[in-house]
Amino acid sequence: MLLKRLFDLVFSLLGLLVLSPVLFLMALLAAWDTNSNGFFMQQRVGQHGRLFKIFKLRSIHAKTHTISAFGEFLRKTKIDELPQLFNVLIGDMSFVGPRPDIPGYYDFLTGEKRKILELKPGLTSEASLKYYDEDALLAQHEDALRYNDTILFPDKVRMNLEYYYNRSFLGDLKIIAKTFFRQF
């Protein structure tokens, strides 16, 4: 999908240029709030199961490892995800695709479900829209890990497989529009 990559290049570069003052300010505030670097990188599973470093704004205190007050704001508004525009620019991610997970989930998929790994991970997807407030949803369950592993993750896999079989540039634009209007 050459058109998809061209879209990703143009709009990630444009987004980084336009949002760079906001990103800089948010990184400064995150650094002050967490007593650490305002940005951090985390290993994620990407296309073809290849590991890559995802960029985010730091939302966790360096010493206590708890989410800071400003970090809660960053996470709730998804502003902590904006540095991933750089991941899109360099080609590790796309605007639309399955959200990249930490090692131990997507890399253990078997059979037809492994088709998800053929896709470039994205900033947004139908699954990420459905589970927009995943942290709050998990907090409602006594055994959040079990709920994630038995309910949420399998549903995300199902939705991401649907995307795999039905993906199109127009479909991606619809998901981007839904994401944009979800934010505002």
Automatic annotation (TrEMBL):
Q: Name one Pfam family in it.
A: Bac_transf
Q: Which keywords are on file for this protein?
A: Transferase
The protein's name: Sugar transferase involved in LPS biosynthesis (Colanic, teichoic acid)
What Gene Ontology molecular-function terms does this entry list?
phosphotransferase activity, for other substituted phosphate groups
Family assignment from sequence similarity:
Belongs to the bacterial sugar transferase family.
Domain called Bacterial sugar transferase: residue spans: 4-182
